[in-house]
Amino acid sequence: MRDHSNHVQVTREKAVELLRDACEFDRRKETIPVQEACGRVLAEDAKAQTDIPNCLECCLDSVAVHYADFENGMPDTSEWVRGVDWEFANTGVGMPEGFDTAIVIEHVTVSDDERHITIDAAPSAKFAGTNPQGSKMRQGEVLAFENTLVTVDIMARMAMGGVTDVSVIARPTVAFIPTGNELTRIGDELKRGGHFETNGLLIAEKIRQWGGEPVLWDIVPDDRERITAAICEACTKADIVVVNAGSSKGSDDWNIEMLDEVGTVLYHQTNHGPGHHSSAAVVDGTPVVGISGPPRGAGFTADFYLRPVIKRYLRQPENLPKVKARLASEIRPGGPGAHKHMAGAKQLPGEVRPSENADGSIFYGVKFMIVRQAEDGVLEAVGVPGKPGGLSEDAVNGYYMMPSGTGVNPPQVGDFIEVDLKPWA
Ligand SMILES: Nc1nc2c(c(=O)[nH]1)N[C@H]1C(S)=C(S)[C@@H](COP(=O)(O)OP(=O)(O)OC[C@H]3O[C@@H](n4cnc5c(N)ncnc54)[C@H](O)[C@@H]3O)O[C@H]1N2
Ligand code: MOO
């Protein structure tokens, strides 16, 4: 049984900072076709391979002429020959060779047989109505900088400049190690009192959405040697490792000890719940993110702690975006430390766990919120009604860290609160 007398509890902010400092990635690069670059991060500047346009180009639908014919005023065009003195020229297309100036088609009357024209407005200067070579992009010009997340527009711009292959940061591989004797693979027969291993499904998809490559480990039983072996193997094979469950104080909760044996534990508790038993370690230079078992907390603690590590690898913004929203429904404190048997209580009933902020520090209950526009146009946040883990959670798009502790006043309906937006990417 684990010795949990020596807690390393940190705030959420400190946890992210410790994890960030522990990441010294040796990023890999790969070259992929530009058509597949959307959603990837450039490892090098992408440069135009050619001038665009690569010759004098016509601006609008026009006829192409020689400016020299207009230098002494409007010429007599009755004897003009198509292809010699004039030619059609169209928007965004190279000028017919030899022609230097364009007159928009609205100032031109074309004969029915399209061989003769009369013009009612002369061009103002040589090259009028044209775009010079290289006016959209010049060969060698940077079209997108290193570390840019390629959007559809950027992908199309690079392709426009003749870029066929791009160098991108390889997707970091993220090993997910599920632990627990009670776990059963999805599709197998459920053990008595057990659960299907669903956190792997949940977190693998998040990893993909955030730009990583999930690698799912088989369920590891609560056995010290097997846990250690799985962690060590994963740390040699993956860029980032997630160890799931086995993080608390139960008779089979070994993960923190094992991480401590093979690496350095940075922290193994945070100041919020759910998610209290989140942890982090470094094993042979590989960051290991510890996510607690209960699925309700596993999802958003991955948002809090795993996402920044993946984003750091990919050199993308790490913090979740926050919005200020008007609290639209009453929310109550919760989690250890927010219990009615608060810090300082002399005797607790046996089924109640002691406060984790008995020292008077602030503890945060993570509240699932729906952020939406109120009828008066203001952004409002509604606490998810009903039972935690219920259907109403499907609409959750934000998290609020609700403080509790001595002297802390919880927000009232109508107050503005800061909500972390749930990340989809
Ligand atoms: N006496 C105390 N008991 C507990 C405390 C405490 O402070 N004192 N903390 C509670 C809190 S908070 C949490 S969170 C959990 C943390 O538990 P673990 O991270 O050690 O997770 P397990 O005990 O292994 O499992 C808990 C629960 O989650 C299910 N689980 C685990 N892995 C998966 C998975 N991959 N997919 C789906 N479900 C999974 C597991 O079957 C259990 O039902 O401890 C509290 N207890
Ligand atoms: O760590 Mo637990 O996730 O607080 O519920």
Automatic annotation (TrEMBL):
<dbReference type="GO" id="GO:0006777">
    <property type="term" value="P:Mo-molybdopterin cofactor biosynthetic process"/>
</dbReference>
<feature type="region of interest" description="Disordered">
    <location>
        <begin position="331"/>
        <end position="355"/>
    </location>
</feature>
<dbReference type="InterPro" id="IPR038987">
    <property type="entry name" value="MoeA-like"/>
</dbReference>
<dbReference type="InterPro" id="IPR036688">
    <property type="entry name" value="MoeA_C_domain_IV_sf"/>
</dbReference>
<dbReference type="GO" id="GO:0005829">
    <property type="term" value="C:cytosol"/>
</dbReference>
<dbReference type="InterPro" id="IPR001453">
    <property type="entry name" value="MoaB/Mog_dom"/>
</dbReference>
<comment type="function">
    <text>Catalyzes the insertion of molybdate into adenylated molybdopterin with the concomitant release of AMP.</text>
</comment>
<keyword id="KW-0500">Molybdenum</keyword>
<keyword id="KW-0479">Metal-binding</keyword>
<keyword id="KW-0501">Molybdenum cofactor biosynthesis</keyword>
<dbReference type="InterPro" id="IPR005110">
    <property type="entry name" value="MoeA_linker/N"/>
</dbReference>
<comment type="pathway">
    <text>Cofactor biosynthesis; molybdopterin biosynthesis.</text>
</comment>
<dbReference type="InterPro" id="IPR036425">
    <property type="entry name" value="MoaB/Mog-like_dom_sf"/>
</dbReference>
<dbReference type="Pfam" id="PF00994">
    <property type="entry name" value="MoCF_biosynth"/>
</dbReference>
<dbReference type="GO" id="GO:0046872">
    <property type="term" value="F:metal ion binding"/>
</dbReference>
<keyword id="KW-0808">Transferase</keyword>
<protein>
    <recommendedName>
        <fullName>Molybdopterin molybdenumtransferase</fullName>
        <ecNumber>2.10.1.1</ecNumber>
    </recommendedName>
</protein>
<dbReference type="Pfam" id="PF03453">
    <property type="entry name" value="MoeA_N"/>
</dbReference>
<feature type="domain" description="MoaB/Mog">
    <location>
        <begin position="175"/>
        <end position="312"/>
    </location>
</feature>
<dbReference type="GO" id="GO:0061599">
    <property type="term" value="F:molybdopterin molybdotransferase activity"/>
</dbReference>
<keyword id="KW-0460">Magnesium</keyword>
<dbReference type="InterPro" id="IPR036135">
    <property type="entry name" value="MoeA_linker/N_sf"/>
</dbReference>
<comment type="similarity">
    <text>Belongs to the MoeA family.</text>
</comment>
